[in-house]
Amino acid sequence: MTRGARTAITLSVLGLVLAVAAAWGWTAATKPLPAKVDTPICVSTDVAEGERVFPQDVTVSVYNASDRDGLAGRTMQLLTDEGFAEGSSGNVSGQVDVVQIWTLDPESPAVALVASRLGDDVEIQRRQPPGVGVAVVVGDDFDTLVKGRKAVVAESDTEICSPPIG
After folding, report:
1. Does the N-terminal or the C-terminal CB of the chain have fewer CB atoms within 10 Å?
2. The LytR/CpsA/Psr regulator C-terminal domain covers which part of the protein (predicted)?
3. What is the tally of helices (H) and strands (E) in the chain?
């Protein structure tokens, strides 16, 4: 085989490799990006009777039922500073003087733990919460948290809304 023929074959093979690589690169570059996976704010966690529930085990959502701008956000910051996991926040309509917890499970150890930080004026209302976790609704007369319990022992088997692990 002559030198010119070998050069032509080598260039042809290299051109073919370049064309395949370019096609593969174009396909990879124009492929849609993977969808963002939304992680849940909280997950249902089983708590056995006698097990202790700590602030980091509890997701809290805070809602403003007052005329004070930013009260839900400030209260959420106070609760997360105490170790609670952040849920959702916003405004709700309703008559709340100081502070209420809206829950379908008033006997929950998570509710008891959050209530211990809200002071003597907290009312626990059996009603549909507007968000996830323990729903705290603050009113015009709410000021700040109090020193509450470090943990609460579950009196029966139950479920709480906890932050996802990982």
Report:
1. C
2. 57-142
3. 3, 9
In angstroms, the CA 105 to CA 131 distance is 14
Closest by CA position to 118, among listed 89, 86, 149, 140: 149
Residue 148 belongs to some domain of the structure: yes
Judgement on whether residues 145 and 97 belong to the same structural domain of the protein = yes
Verify that 48 and 14 share a domain, yes or no.
Answer: no
Query: CB neighbours of 124 closer than 8 A, spacing ≥ 6?
Result: 100, 101, 103, 106, 111, 115
Question: With 0-12 CB in 10 A as exposed, 13-18 as middle and 19+ as buried, what is 64?
Answer: buried
43 token code pair: 């997950």
Whether residue 36 is contained in a domain is answered as no
98 and 60 assigned to the same domain: yes
